Amino acid sequence: MKKVVVLIACLFTVLTYGQETKQIPQINVSGEGKVKVTPDQALILATVETKGNNSKEVKKLNDQQMETVLKLVKSMNLAPADYKTKRVSLMPQYDYEKKKTSYIATQTIEIILRDLAKYDALMEGLVDQGVNRIDNVTFQSSKLAQYQSDARKLAMKEAKMKAEDYVSVLGQKIGLAVVITDSSQNYYPQPVYAAMKGAMSAQEDAATRETMAVGEIEIVANVAVSFKLE
């Protein structure tokens, strides 16, 4: 009998609590912030690739070519922290028709160019000194963190403006933000292939010319916000 009384008391407590708990009136909106900026630096991935039938000779030739490339990079007065070896490989390739093994040696260097005025000279020099593959050129901003913060603030302002527009028709006001969710995607600058193509053909024309169109990069932030209604 005591167990039955206890069970009834528990059920009564749950029902009473459920009746007393009220859903908070709120509005859910999203906001997007965009900041367009002109890039001030470039990330370049350049590779020296060498082929041959003798692994030692192929590796030696590849090292020699990369040595001249590094000398060029140093002559551009880049900071030591702005260039580094990214990948090194020596791989055999077997030709089943000729029944012979050849070798491919590659070394890839990553360069951060902080002075875009040196872009054409650097790209032309890389090709002249032995680089035979430009894997990627990406234009970036050195103030990315600042611009991402600006984009987030713009996203929040848009979300608040949306909420105010909706509730103003009902004669209500928005209160405190109950939930804020950052739904922004990671920022990955896009490579500029037109610039790479121009640089690879630079050795065909010794005249000074401009081969890149930097344009603008767009930094986007997205946010979802739940505001309490008053």
Tags for this model:
230 residues; alpha+beta; Translation Initiation Factor IF3; Alpha-Beta Plaits; 2 domains; four-stranded antiparallel sheet; three-stranded antiparallel sheet; 5 helices; elongated
Helix fraction bin: 25-40%
Radius of gyration: 30 Å
> What is the count of helical runs?
5
Basic shape = elongated
How many discrete structural domains?
2
Largest sheet, described in full? 4 strands, antiparallel
Low-confidence stretches: 4-10, 193-208
Our measurement of the CA-to-CA distance between the termini, rounded to an integer number of angstroms, reads 48 Å
| Structural category | alpha+beta
Can you give the mean pLDDT? 84
Q: How are the strands of the biggest sheet laid out side by side?
A: 3-4-2-5
Protein name: SIMPL domain-containing protein
Organism: Flavobacterium laiguense
Task: Describe it.
- By secondary structure, the protein is an alpha+beta fold.
- It has 2 domains: 22-39 and 142-188 and 214-230, Protein of unknown function (DUF541), domain 1 (Translation Initiation Factor IF3); 41-140, Protein of unknown function (DUF541), domain 2 (Alpha-Beta Plaits, 2-Layer Sandwich).
- Helix content is 36%, strand content 35%.
- The strands form 2 sheets. The protein has a 4-stranded antiparallel beta sheet.
- The two termini are 48 Å apart.
- The model is unreliable at 4-10 and 193-208 (pLDDT under 50).
- One of its GO terms (biological process) is DNA damage response.
